[in-house]
Amino acid sequence: xxxxxxxxxxxxxxxxxxxxxxxxxxxxxxxxxxxxxxxxxxxxxxxxxxxxxxxxxxxxxxxxxxxxxxxxxxxxxxxxxxxxxxxxxxxxxxxxxxxxxxxxxxxxxxxxxxxxxxxxxxxxxxxxxxxxxxxxxxxxxxxxxxxxxxxxxxxxxxxxxxxxxxxxxxxxxxxxxxxxxxxxxxxxxxxxxxxxxxxxxxxxxxxxxxxxxxxxxxxxxxxxxxxxxxxxxxxxxxxxxxxxxxxxxxxxxxxxxxxxxxxxxxxxxxxxxxxxxxxxxxxxxxxxxxxxxxxxxxxxxxxxxxxxxxxxxxxxxxxxxxxxxxxxxxxxxxxxxxxxxxxxxxxxxxxxxxxxxxxxxxxxxxxxxxxxxxxxxxxxxxxxxxxxxxxxxxxxxxxxxxxxxxxxxxxxxxxxxxxxxxxxxxxxxxxxxxxxxxxxxxxxxxxxxxxx
Length: 452
Known about the structure:
Elements (H helix, E strand, L loop, with lengths): L7 H10 L4 H19 L18 E5 L5 H10 L10 E6 L6 E4 H6 L8 H8 L11 E6 L8 E4 L10 H13 L2 E5 L7 H14 L5 E7 L6 H16 L7 E6 L5 H8 L1 H61 L2 H4 L4 H39 L5 H7 L3 H5 L10 H44 L1
Parallel strand pairs: 1-5, 1-6, 2-4, 6-7, 7-8
Antiparallel strand pairs: 2-5, 3-4
């Protein structure tokens, strides 16, 4: 079997974080070890990596209702006029070029570095026939704004009853789930409840992740601080009626700045790191909790079908033997010291290859089912690859239904990877704590200097 090569994606990630983020650089190594385990099981190809499941860019999403508050804010914040299509999900990416470029949704669907990688598969599962229409739902726009360096913004379309459908709902839920920061403009809660209930349900689902910043737009007014506080308290009560009890709030007014939003965006690298480590832990656990369980269940079904089919054929042979016994007394031949063993060996010689053929035929049906199941579970691992690898000659004959690789050796490796991931989370916590500590003392020293 060919050795597992390190994915170019992992090589580039390791170079990228070598000098900027030692925690993520080590996370790349853990992904590499996980890739080797999954490759040995036939779950991924030699040049594939499990690190492609999530974008490694810090992700910001914007969600709003009918008003232009969201687009006006983006234009002010980025310092440029974005030409996004109001009915599409638009990914805004930095470019050093002075002119912007608009790329189709297929560019997002095909690029594993971007947040809608292989989203067409999910769309097709949600609505048959829509998976090949990603250009109708997605676009990528490059923007010359320093605010976008090393991060991505996903601008969701306004909630419009005339174009709202289940695919848009799916995509909103998707971006809420994957984003590190979601700017929710409160005009969302003033739209028709029929068209925003699924989006609000997603916010409620993820509200404890600390990713939501609710933006109250009063940019046409000049507000005192106490008035802004009153507005926030009013909205907190209102959102509690929707089941939303957490999250931060900011009021945009003529005399306000974007300091709070800027601070959250500046911390996105930390949020991104935690998200990547969470994805890594999920990927490690999924090998046992999802992949192995699915393939083992498939092997059990396959083994049962093969055995039943072989037993039916064997029963047919026994019936023929009984008729032959009545006609010619074939049992006498079975007890013959010479002919008996020959007949039994001949029978085994016929049934063994027959059982192998039956096993392969049933295996093809199971493989087709696993392809469908893989799409339903939205797995990047090739379930059928592990299944086929488990169809060895002796596994076809012996009563074993455990997948290849489900052993103490791999269990020990996976546990070791989980421990390494937990250590990386702890290192990230320590790194963040040190940063906060240094910021505090830097501020204290500055204040002390001013006093003198």
